[in-house]
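U., I forgot to send this yesterday:
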Amino acid sequence: MCSSGRLDVPTWVDTVKTGTYKELAPYDADWYYIRAAAIARHIYLRKNVGVGALQKLFGGSVNRGQRPSHHVDASGSVQRKALQSLEKIGVLEKDERGGRKISQQGRRDLDRIATSLINVEDDE
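Result:
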């Protein structure tokens, strides 16, 4: 997905935090592509995943000083925009029961990528 250049990236990816519990934006310049690939893989393995489930998945622990840490959900906007980007290139589609699911073309693309990765590992 990343090498083809088809995935449109929002303009704010270099300055945004991925959650309220974070102190800084991600250091990696390609973090949006990595997040989109992780979302595509998560939805490939499970059905009917929505923004709320992805917020919980990518959330983390908030530093509360002397008090115990607690889980905090990640930013919903980042997950929503990644889902919309994946929908735009045809990997995902909306499900009638809510959430998103892998499209037929998306399943074919992800299977092809996984097969090529297995073949590369076998050659080494």
